[in-house]
Design brief:
By secondary structure, this protein is an alpha/beta fold. It is flat and about 45 Å long.
């Protein structure tokens, strides 16, 4: 399976979010995550903080929407990449559930 925490949808998307439209023009990208995730046929858990000041949760939601089943999206209300620190039990439950769906 795959676990993504604090992931962005593509280099172009994060560049545009950071510096505006010019960022999208200046970044070359061969494998945007939002496209690559469509080809992934593994259980996937996407974790993202609503408090992430760098990468908006909407990018993680886009990855989730494009991902194949089985998949799960877990939005946390703590610092960026702090999910395992504050939500270890819940993350463990979600991983176990995904792996059972895979079998």
């Amino acid at each position: 399976g795959v676990i993504l925490e604090g992931a962005f949808s593509s280099h172009k998307d994060i560049a545009a979010h950071s510096v505006g439209f010019i960022g999208r023009l200046m970044v070359r990208e061969a494998y945007p995550a939002k496209t690559a995730v469509k080809n992934l046929h593994k259980p996937i858990l996407i974790i993202h903080s609503i408090n992430d000041s760098v990468i908006p949760a909407s990018m993680a939601k886009q990855l989730f929407e494009n991902a194949n089943e089985p998949k799960d999206y877990f939005e946390i209300d703590e610092c960026h990449i702090c999910g395992p620190l504050y939500y270890a039990d819940e993350i463990d439950k979600r991983i176990s559930k995904l792996m059972k769906l895979q079998n």
